[in-house]
Write a structure and sequence with these properties.
mainly alpha, 76% helix, Four Helix Bundle (Hemerythrin (Met), subunit A), 7 helices
Length: 141
């Protein structure tokens, strides 16, 4: 398959949903009973957006590679390095942080941790939107 045939619409929609969830969560009054539920929506949107981002990064790199099996078998850190080398990721270290936060969402629920994860979403959203733009450029090249 050719990178031009990879659909990035699911990622765009996921990032739009994250931006919307974040907006509603931030606009809600601090003492509102809905605030924790809106924060949960932000975290869920983050999980989905993160997973799609990493999968599409790997897929685009696979399609651009002269040796696709090597890309398929890359560790997460090597995938980030290759993504940065290809100009698709501006900062691989930040993506390690997003992975760390994503891993925290799958473990026991902790109120303070949920708050920290949700508060990090503006930075994640900026990185994921930048990746989306780079993937678009790579797929249309």
């Amino acid at each position: 398959m050719d990178p031009a045939r990879i659909s990035l619409d699911p990622l765009r929609k996921a990032l739009d949903a994250l931006a919307s969830a974040q907006h509603y969560w931030l606009q809600e009054a601090p003492d509102s009973g809905r605030k924790p539920h809106l924060r949960a929506g932000v975290i869920q949107s983050f999980e989905f957006s993160y997973e799609l981002s990493v999968r599409l990064l790997r897929r685009v790199l696979l399609e651009r590679s002269a040796v696709p099996p090597q890309v398929a078998d890359l560790s997460f850190n090597d995938l980030l390095r290759l993504g940065a080398d290809a100009g698709l990721l501006a900062d691989a270290l930040r993506w390690r942080r997003w992975r760390e936060l994503r891993n925290r969402t799958s473990h026991a629920y902790d109120e303070a941790q949920a708050q920290r994860i949700a508060e990090a979403m503006p930075d994640f959203l900026a990185d994921a939107q930048a990746l989306h733009c780079q993937l678009l450029a790579a797929c249309s090249a």
